[in-house]
Amino acid sequence: MTLQSFLFYLLAVISVGSALLMVTRRNPVIAALYLILNFFALGGLYLTLHAQFIAFIQILVYAGAIMVLFLFVIMLLNLGDVKQLTERVSYKKIIAAGLSFALLMEMLYIFVYAPSDLPTSRFEQAATIGTVEYIGKQLYTTFLFPFEVASVLLLAAIVGAVILAKRRLN
Amino acid sequence: MDNVYLVSVVKFVMYVAIVLISVILIGWLERRISAFMQNRTGPNRVGPFGLLQILIDVVKLLLKEDIVPKSANKRIHDLAPIISIAVALSTFAVVPFGNTIEMFGSEVKLMIADVNVGILYMLSITSLGVYGLTLAGWASNNKYSLLGGLRSSAQMISYELSMGLSIIGVLMVSGTLRLDQIVLHQTSYLGGWLPAWNIFLQPVAFITFAVAAFAETNRLPFDLPEAEPELVAGYHTEYTGLKFGLFMLAEYSNVITASAVIVTLFLGGWHLPYAEYLGLSPFGLSILQILTFCVKVALVILFFIVVRWTIPRFRYDQLMNLGWKVMLPVAIANVLVTGLVLLVI
Amino acid sequence: MIVIRLEDLLYSAPLLVLTSSGLLALIAEAAGRDKPVISYYTSLIGVITSLILTFLNLGAGVPVFNNMILQGGYAAYCNLIFLSSALLSIVLSRSYLERMQYHRGEFYVLIVFATAGMMLMAAALDLTIVFLGIELMSICLYVLAGFMRKKELANEAALKYFLLGAFATGFLLYGIALIYGTSGTTNLVVISRSFAQLSGNSLFLIGCGMLIVAFSFKIAAVPFHMWAPDVYEGAPTTVTAFMSTGAKAAAFATFVAVFVRVFDIPGTALSSVLALIAAASMIVGNVTAIAQNNVKRMLAYSSIAHTGYMLSGIAAGNAEGEQGILFYLVAYTFMNIGAFGIVSWVEQQEDRKLKFDDYAGFSARQPAVAVLMSVFMFSLAGIPPFAGFFGKYYVFLAAVKADMTWLAIIGVMTSLVSVYYYLRLVVLMYFCEGESDVAAKVPLAAISAVTLAAVLVILLGIYPSLLVDMTKGFFKI
Fold it and tell me: Which of B64, B258, B287, C38 is deepest in the core (most CB within 10 A)?
């Protein structure tokens, strides 16, 4: 096994494992911590694909900022009685489980029996398109318009959050 | 290939050793300086000038019982100091402490990891430091600890923004995310005589970055997470022995790293002005540059210590006001002005 | 490399003017406190200017900004729908919000930004724009739904809409990722060129399936409709009017832009999936609407049913279907916004006067308003000669031509069911005794807005060709 594929399998196991643990933990703080671990594993996967910029932004933004706020909110909510959050097994859950299982089988069927041809690997190019310089150039030329739209989107989100969260009206 | 790994390991081991020794020195320095400023004597019994006092303290911490409160979350209680120290030690990996040096018959860059997005690495690792404090506060299951942890997360998130924005000013000037390139960019001379250090090119960014660095290291005047009069000892109230020691170690390592980053980004890194005209051999020059770097870092650390014992602590609302209503707009304005100036030039 | 050309800016003037007016209103709001009227007029001027510019832009569609969006043509046509919906909502909102004591300038800013998002959705030539447009619209709507912060139902509506909407966004992004992964591009024009080859690729089809889920959520099609009744009920009534018309039209516009204009779906599995969703929406929407006692909830279920009618046009995927949807969207926008407008006049604080019974004997005190309401109800029921009839006629015709006669039959049968609950309101207004009246004196602007909607509903019912001819050239890229 090359170092590349070893890293891939290691990180893949960590990310899938932490995602499962995140969903199954009862304590929301612990669940959040597993999600952070998951982000790390994802960041590592990006690194193995030569996407350094995305990798570090993943950690900086998701693990370093968003999840901190999540933890902050969870701690402030003071979810003392975690049991209230857990549902008993109900008919809804059984239906959901059945549907999810069917979806899983369908996907497995597709992946196993009808393998689709992905576009040829662009791994060789990855080292050049993963750099900050390349991403920056793309953002400010080809994708300038979406970039500007994103700024309006963020502005709208900020205005909305302030309206809903402001202590006093008028 | 193997050579690269070997060099990295050597650099890493040396680095950890140096940091641990410096922490001891800084600890001693801090106590002596605080004593001097408060007209006391400070530790002076163990060793010459009390130099070995901290060593004895370490032994004391090692021997103390590790107490975990009954209602605490044991695993996370253990994990928190580890996160703190790991984050504190890893940031340094991308800081260049010299240009290049001949070692093992090949040219070696004097930094532990040569990451081509060095600054992003640094920012993302420092942004994780908050987990150590927050989790310590939460896992202790104690009101004061939790409040300390919450304060730390709010504070660090607030100041990370202005920190990142002040770095953008530096990036715009030097046009690279590699820290070694940023230092190299500072080795030229403005008008033929003034070293092109970023402190001269980006004075506003320097100030905002330095203030944010104080906040990020939780040092006075921003040590709200452990403010004694209000929160006993904040997030590490419930920590004893070695784990408490790890928090202390993390704090001082953070000070060292923050100083090293300030030196790298704003104070010319290992650059000693006019040293290249001295006619030294390349090896000699490298050694001189490493020494320059160490002296600069030491001076900034000294500044950290002096500030701690000079300025009183902020109130929490003042801290938030400063972060969001002063630092952030100033940092954004700096980016704008820098952009305009670069556009005109 | 030239990043922005002058003609890019000129062609997208409606979008730019609208967004700038939103920004201006925001600045005015920040500068002049407690004067929401400034924001009202700023956004009103922005929307009207944009509307005029859009009329000038109705010619052929031109890709601008590096093939990111299409301006003119199809996009301009859809813009007309969004802008009229925004215009009518803004005019209706002022008196409504003043009455409910929630008159704040940010309201109009959010409406304007949401409209900008809708315009992007219709114009998108790139999946990134599809995503950004949907998010821009949705985020504004989440906030608008919960704008009456102290009302419990409004909070529930906003939270429900937000959580489920975020979940739908997850599907959207996953779908986009799979499509990008299999085709190597996010540009819809490039994808459409290699669609024949890609449509055999199972990962690509899963991606399309994910997109269908996300879009179906936004248009409130069964089984992704659960949020609609609660959100429509909890949101301020004028916002509901805006959501059920503009936002729905925008979601349909992207749906058509992606699945009809780019992905050549007739005859594929995707087409039958859409037909099933359409049938389910028609049945569930119409049958559940019968049981409703609250007019807003009834209109919510009716909007689910209308989603079903319009979806059968997409499922058919032929020229009649495409033109049918575009006509239907216009008709539906005017009749629905008119109906909600009148509901907002009758409604009183704390959700009073929203029941069917509150309309008993309405014609005695407000004969003119009762006539307007009846026009909208008849049109929603699809009774000629109102616009709603021709909308249904076109989409069912399309279904028959595409060998989906069963879908058309379900459509006609469920339409018959819908007559019951639409006419129940009319019967109550005219043939029952009651005290019902509008809550307060309705300002002239609001009256003219609703009258305009009614006039258009009648006019388009008599001359549907006015619009249908216009839409003929929109489906060649």
Answer: B258
Whole-number Å distance between alpha carbons of B106 and B98: 15
pLDDT (0 to 100) of residue C354: 82
By percentage, how much of chain B surpasses pLDDT 90? 2
Examine residue B113 and state whether it is found in any structural domain, yes or no. yes
Spatial CA neighbour of C23 closest among C53, C46, C54, C48: C46
Where are any strands of DSSP class E within C66-178? 69-71
**Per-residue pLDDT tens digits for B264-314:** 888 887 877 777 777 777 778 888 888 888 888 888 888 888 888 888 878
Residue A115: which pLDDT band, with cuts at 50, 70 and 90? low
**Cα angle C4, C9, C15; round to 5:** 125
Q: What is the residue range of B316's domain?
A: 65-344
ipTM of this model?
A: 0.90
The model's pTM is 0.89
Number of domains in chain B: 1
In the block, residue with structure tokens 């992003």: B120
A125 interfaces chain C, CB cutoff of 8 Å:
no
Contacts 24+ apart (CB under 8 A), A136-140: A140/C3
Give chain C's domain count.
Answer: 1
The phi-psi region of residue B101 (left if phi > 0; otherwise alpha if psi is between -120 and 50; otherwise beta) is beta
Cα–Cα distance list, C287 to B2, B221, C357 (Å): 74, 67, 20
Domain limits, chain A = 3-130, 131-170
Q: At residue C477, does pLDDT exceed 50?
A: no
Nearest to A153 among C69, C135, C146 (CB): C135
Beta-carbon count within 10 A of B309 CB: 14
Task: State how far the Cα of A53 lies from the Cα of B44, in Å rounded to an integer.
Answer: 50
CB-CB neighbors (< 8 A) of A64 in chain B = 123-124, 127-128, 130, 160
Spatial contact of C36 and C105, defined as CB atoms under 8 Å apart: yes
How far, in Å, CA of C193 to CA of C6, rounded?
A: 28
Answer yes or no: are the C-beta atoms of B66 and B240 closer than 8 Å.
Answer: yes
Residue A119 touches chain C, beta carbons under 8 Å = yes
Q: CB of C457 within 8 A of CB of C338? A: yes
The most confident of the ranges B59-73, B208-222, C295-309 is: C295-309
Instruction: Find where tokens 């290699």 sit.
Output: C194
Size of interface A-C (CB pairs under 8 A): 93
Answer yes or no: is B340 within a domain.
Answer: yes
Do C374 and C426 contact (CB within 8 A), yes or no?
yes
Residue B1: pLDDT band by 50, 70, 90 thresholds?
very low
Domain boundaries, position C309 = 266-477
Place of tokens 């209503």: B325
Both structure tokens of C26? 């925001």
Q: What is the CATH code for A3-130?
A: 1.20.120.1200
User: A37 in contact with B at a CB cutoff of 8 Å?
Assistant: no
CA angle C296, C246, A170 (to 5 degrees): 70
Please say whether the dihedral angle defined by the alpha carbons of residues B270, B272, B275 and B280, taken in this order, is positive or negative.
Answer: negative
Task: Report yes or no on B139 lying in a domain.
Answer: yes
Residues of A in contact with B138 (CB under 8 A): 29, 71, 75
Q: One-letter amino acid identity for C273?
A: V
> A29 in contact with B at a CB cutoff of 8 Å?
yes
- Inter-CA distances, B236 with A69, B26, B77, B247, C262, Å: 21, 21, 10, 8, 60
Domain membership of residue C403 (yes or no) is yes
Estimate the crossing angle of helix B241-266 against helix B282-308, to 10 degrees. Answer: 120
CB pairs under 8 A between A and B: 66
In a domain, C372, yes or no: yes
**pLDDT category, A60, cuts 50, 70, 90?**
confident
